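Appendix B. Chain record.
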Amino acid sequence: MFIQCDILDEKYTKLRPLNLGHEDCQSKHTFGPAVRMYWLLHYVVSGKGKYIVNDTEYAVYPGQAFLIRPGEITTYQADEKDPWHYVWSAFDADIDKLFELPYILDIPELKAIFQKIFSEFDFSIDNQSYAIARIWEIVGCLTNNSFTASDSPYVTK
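Structure tokens predicted for this chain:
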């Protein structure tokens, strides 16, 4: 039996991985207000904090991720008593389905990918191939998950 999965080039030119990183934040460490022209996804390994976008504040806890969309004004801040440690991935993407995602994500598959990055990736060396593969894996996870209308803050408003 012959089975084949064709790779359509035009579909995969819509994603450009930019970087992976992590930060163990100090108490009340704040970034923003800022506007980015790319996608940025933070996964909280430990601690907690808040994420503010479109005048809405979200509490974010370990095991959750928060999504920063291009062109939006965002601010995020580590908790005063239990500051967060997060891992992030940044990428340019022209994928409409990403705009359907809620700002706060609690997806087990995504959690597994970020935990893998945090435990396996040596951030002290230049390992672009690993970083690119993980970012593709992250975006694949995001675009393959289904979200109901109630997951969208736009629908809630």
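Further analysis of this model is presented in Appendix C.
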